[in-house]
## 1
Amino acid sequence: MTQITDQLDNIRRRIARAAEAAGRAADDITLLAVSKQQPADAIEAAWRAGQRHFAENYLQEALQKMRALSHLDIQWHFIGRIQANKTRPIAEHFQWVHTIDRERIAVRLNEHRPDAAARLKVFVQINQGHEPQKGGAAEADAEALARLIAAQPRLELRGLMSIPPSGGERETRRYFERLRALRDDLIARGVGAESLSMGMSADFELAIACGSDFVRVGSAIFGPRPPR
Ligand SMILES: *Cc1c(COP(=O)(O)O)cnc(C)c1O
């Protein structure tokens, strides 16, 4: 577990350097520790090293870990694909959702968000490469979906998220810049999708250079994931 502490330190230093190089404050960038397929022990080790934001992809697995770690103050982010019949437990147990890609999911998350809880903070996921195996709305549908979310009383629209197609640095930069341009365009049109959720272990520094506010880092913190 000391390895997790060391790797977290290393990622934090790299985030600070990337922010500084981009003329940004390191505090403005939120590190999400992507803990899918990692045991509760590993999350607790990262928590003891000061990490508070954790991201999970698979609902049942996440709920088990939440129960095991209910003594810790953790901000849980859902970053997996959302089936319509899973919106209630997601709305009840997570504080953040990065992967809304259609209206039906937004409406159901709003319906199922408990009144006693703060509004659910959400991102619209964009499928920039039109890849069938990935979730995400088409860029052309982003504005309508963002406006619908902004009109839901139990949701708080936070921004746009993407997992661009894997590729070289130049191609990845192009996708990151395009997501940022889409965000800027929405803001200019009066849609308050302020933040960008982009960048993973292999490319979070590039994402920060391109304006990312939330980087989602898994294997660079926890090591390789065991097979599911
Ligand atoms: C798994 C996953 C990550 C983290 O990937 P790493 O390469 O391990 O950093 C980030 N975002 C999403 C949506 C993921 O599914």
## 2
Amino acid sequence: MNPSQTVRDQCVSKFHRSPNHNRPSTPPIVPAVVYEMDSPDAADRILSGDQAGYAYQRDGHPNASWLSEHCRQLHQADFAFVTSSGMSALALVVLNLLQPGHEVLLSSRLYGKTVSLVKELDRWGISHRTVDVSDLTATAKAMTDNTQLVIVETISNPTMRVADVQAIGELAHQQNAKLLVDNTFASPAIFRPLEFGADFVWESLTKIMNGHGDVLMGMLAGRGDGQLLSQTLSTWGMTASPFDCWLCERGLGTLYARVKMASESALAIARWLADQTQVKQVSYPGLVEHPDHKIAQEQFGGSGQAMFGHMLMFQVEGGREAAAKVILAMPEIPFCPSLGEMTTTQSHPTSTSHRGQNADDLAAIGIDGGTIRLSVGLESSQFVIEALSRGLKSLDF
Ligand SMILES: *Cc1c(COP(=O)(O)O)cnc(C)c1O
């Protein structure tokens, strides 16, 4: 190119890049940290937001834009942002919305780390209350003039209770509070909380959204203007990496197919479990006897047949010792405390996700050492039922 270029110069030069002749059919990964500008004037326009363009990866990059636009469409939202973990998506909304004197109302059935994050806000003069959101009268009473944010899970972990999002949203709005719904267990394949009046929907993309167990990421979507959220995301350094966004975008393509297959299996497995003598209790919103079956049917029905998701919980008699026996007797179902992978996995809440919580509080919501949580994957339900059958038989001796 330039005759005076030495090998040293050629090594660092960017002039060898061939022009793009036409678009690749899958998006490329764009790992660049910084973007070239045509001129100081162009830099002004891009940095002030008058012209579309990227400047620095922490502020935004093509892979994050593609994935967040995909999430925005899936939730029919006005804006969506992807972040470096599920927890940072929660931090993003909390940092934006709350100030000293505000109060957060928490569902009594939430992911453990959600509760930990809100407890840390005490230091900034932001308090919280906890309420059983299945009791709408108690929920209305628990709200005060200071309540700014209400946090619920669509399908709670691990008890599989389903929140009446529309009713809770109406109560929150009467107090000028915002409703944030953790939709991780459901995903937009099953439920879109914004269509039922939620102000924000939050998901750990780490789980069923990516679906392959190889990405840690989060997503926040909502109604209105997301400009301030976008600034917070960049300033507090919550940006997700281009490679993770690319992997997750790849996972999203099969989201609906995976959720449909896993939901069908989970229903068959839950029905089978309900008939087993060793099983004390099964919780799956697709079962007619589930306390929230009706509301699940209404919310997850969409335009056709309702899907109830890939997560289910069951309890064996005999506490932790019995659960451990069952878990060890079915090695074909890996014991790992996460969810939403292609493979069916099992978890034991009292020794993993809920280990920090008081046993009496857990007993009050129906969890004890005998509780096992299943994340149903893409195997045939027959395969999983055979494994479970072996697991439960280990209790008969
Ligand atoms: C995993 C999980 C989170 C947190 O997401 P990370 O990606 O692990 O940070 C929040 N809520 C629920 C229901 C989860 O399962």
